[in-house]
Amino acid sequence: MKRQCILFFALIMCSLIWAQKVFTVVYATSDDNFVNVREQPSPNARVLDKLWMQFHGLGGGILLEQKGKWTKVCLRGKVTGWCYSKYVGTQTWYTGNGDSILVAAKPVTNLYTDNYADEGPLPLFGTVEKGTILGDEFFDHNGYYELRTGHDYVIIRKEDAEVRRK
After folding, report:
1. Collapsing DSSP states into helix, strand and coil, what is residue 80?
2. Cβ-count burial of 50 within 10 angstroms (0-12 exposed, 13-18 middle, 19+ buried)?
3. Distance between CA atoms of 76 and 55, rounded to whole angstroms?
4. What's the rounded Cα separation, in Å, for the pair 74 and 93?
5. What pLDDT does 118 receive?
6. Could you report the per-residue pLDDT of 58-107, keeping only the tens digit for each?
7. How many other C-beta atoms lie within 10 A of the C-beta of residue 126?
8. Over the stretch 11-62, which tens digit does the pLDDT of each residue have?
9. Which of 4, 41, 47, 108 sits 20 to 30 Å CA-CA off 87?
């Protein structure tokens, strides 16, 4: 009976984690280095934009949903559409192995990228909703948390995120 109770609680905890949305970046994996972002999940739908390959190890959009052979993405917090999943790669900073997790704390949490000119505001990468797990591999840096890849970053203001210990 004790073993069954432990297993039951472990399953509940796992289902709570799985039910939470995990921040996932998307990028093109096609031979021509981009995949079309379409208005609907159909090869005949109007093309809205392009999802490009990784740049310095960072993808170009945020995964919103997967439906059959199609992936719904958001680019730069502005364009939302569908890409054929065969040509879409993903990356996350949540492994499940960290001692703590970084979670979006505002109803609409802004995520930023590097500003190479070092002048003006950080460019918006996209947004995620409150409660989204951003990662368990992150770095504390001057008022921000960073999700690092290659030599680029996804940056979250500290006041926009919460660190939860496991």
Report:
1. strand
2. middle
3. 14
4. 18
5. 67
6. 888 999 999 999 999 999 888 999 999 999 999 999 999 999 999 999 99
7. 22
8. 334 434 445 799 999 999 999 999 999 999 999 999 999 999 988 778 889 9
9. 108
- pLDDT band, very low/low/confident/very high, at 7 (cuts 50, 70, 90): very low
Output the pTM of the full model.
0.81
Name the nearest CA neighbour of 138 among 115, 160, 118, 108: 160
| Per-residue CA distances from 109 to 125, 129, 154, 157 (Å) | 11, 6, 12, 9
Q: Tell me the CA distances in angstroms from 96 to 25, 55, 137, 164, one per residue in order.
A: 17, 26, 9, 13
- Which has the closest alpha carbon to 135: 22, 49, 39? 22
| pLDDT tops 70 at residue 8 | no
Q: Nearest to residue 28, comparing CAs of 63, 56, 53?
A: 53
CA distance 72 to 111: 18
Q: What angle do CA 151, 154, 158 make, to 5 degrees?
A: 125
Integer Cα distance of 62 and 55 in angstroms: 14
For residue 125, give both structure tokens. 């990468």
